[in-house]
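Q: Convert this sequence to structure tokens.
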Amino acid sequence: MKSLFFTLSILLIAGCASVDENLVLNGKSAASLENDINTIVESLPNRKKHEFMIALLSIQMDVTQSPLAFLGNPDGNAVNYELLSQHLDGLNYKQVLELASKSKASVEVLTN
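A:
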């Protein structure tokens, strides 16, 4: 009985720690997209978390029509959920990574 409980506990924890790759991003509004992205990010290990955020920034830079879009964010290091909502609606985690891999933009992460 104890081993069954232990096994079920491990499976439950592993299930909670994995990304729901079928979670479809709702881009109907910036707030709903931000909520869905946060749900995905919270379930990722650190390495994949960074990879996903870089993917979002790559897509954002790729779809930005004008340099004026960066005036409010000159560093370009914050996610613009309003802009992304138009491009990520209906995509899941893997599709976002796939879209980012096709991006012409180059994103670097600088650490102190």
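The chain has one domain: 21-101.
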